[in-house]
Amino acid sequence: MRRIAATLVVLLIALTVPAAAAEPVGVLAVPPTPQAAGTVATGLAAPWGLAFLPDGSALVSERNTGQVKRIANGTTTTVGTVPGVVAGGEGGLHGLAVASTFATDRLVYAYFTAAGDNRVVRMPFTTSLGQPEVIVSGIPKSTVHNGGRLAFGPDGMLYVATGDAGQSANAQNPSSLGGKILRVTPAGAAAPGNPTAGNRLWSLGHRNVQGLAFDGAGRLWASEFGQNTWDELNLIQAGRNYGWPVVEGRAGNPSYTDPVTQWSPGEASPSGIAFSRDTVWLASLRGQRLWAVPVRDGALDGTPVSFFTGTYGRLRLVTDAPDGSLWLMTNNTDGRGTPRPGDDQIQRLTFGTTNPPPPTGSCRVTYAPTTWQNGFTANVTVANTSSTPVNGWTLTWTFGGNQQITNEWNADITQNGTSVTARNVTHNGTIAPSGSQGFGFQGTYSGANSVPGSFTLNGVTCTG
Predict the structure, then answer these.
(1) Does residue 7 form part of some domain?
(2) Is residue 16 part of a domain?
(3) What's the pTM?
(4) I need a surface site. Which of 9, 78, 332, 385 has the fewest CB within 10 A?
């Protein structure tokens, strides 16, 4: 009898005590830890945008001066002033972008505040900037919420982040270019495949988007300033409404798309963002820190982690460099920060797997194609002719025709138009002095299957 009673007690306890949490399926990602690896540039005046050129040098915009600076081989020079920039409040010269077609068209794109609106222009660039051509105009302007980030997508289209210009109703008005992400052709027309034919709108319901970045699968991510409660990181999808000013942050309202993650403005106020190593990186102004958000398949995959809190002050931009590092831009001279010696500056961040770029001529690339009708394979050998090892490599080149890579081996390859980037995989990241690593790919073509004219390893041009 006692044994039966004891059994009943055990059963009752089992029914009334909550079960232990189940073991998680899979392992959540932990963002990699960036390390400061040196100063790229100093003495910049309220820098805002940055775009890399195929030769590994970078163009930087200064918001208040309207000047564009070029950073090459550790030297910063002024290459031009964009005419028509009217700086004031948060307005001025903002984002820069360079298309994959730069090798042939030599065009640089810029977003800036003019006398009556915000607009996007494109300018020829050789050793200096040429006269701008307006391709998008009529974006609402104000002393605040001017948006301003530009990014070319894998589809070759230009994505433009705008703000609501302090008039929140703009964000929900499909006839206004304010409070939107626009998708346009390189000439500024509404891109084919947009949610509404003939309309530049890609997504709406934004307060002030200042960060755009594409991940390895071509998904678009955007950072957004909230008002008083929540700043956001959003996964942008065509035609979606992101809620402002009806909602701020996560609302669970099926009429609007919730952010992937959110922060209070005091710990974020995110501007430029980048995607690298399965992580979205956000540069925070008011929060004065670099956020790392692990993501997988377009969703949060762990807990966001912050780095360098207060180390460099206000952070305007983080971007991935051709050598696999991150460049981190401060913004302490914009009138809202406290300048420090050397400000504003750009810091280079690494992850223990990349070195400074090797000197020019210290690499050699052999490109060996096998061609048949409308198809080909290519084996590529990268040789290190320097006296120091290369730890972590990124090889870039531009096709001279319409070749399209369909699969690859021994490298992670991405293609944007004619521009190709190949990065090492786990087992072949080191190239010893006088050593080499190889990879290959298969592709299709029509017309001539010409051999690329040059290759760049970690930002440095190699010999053939």
Answers:
(1) no
(2) no
(3) 0.74
(4) 9
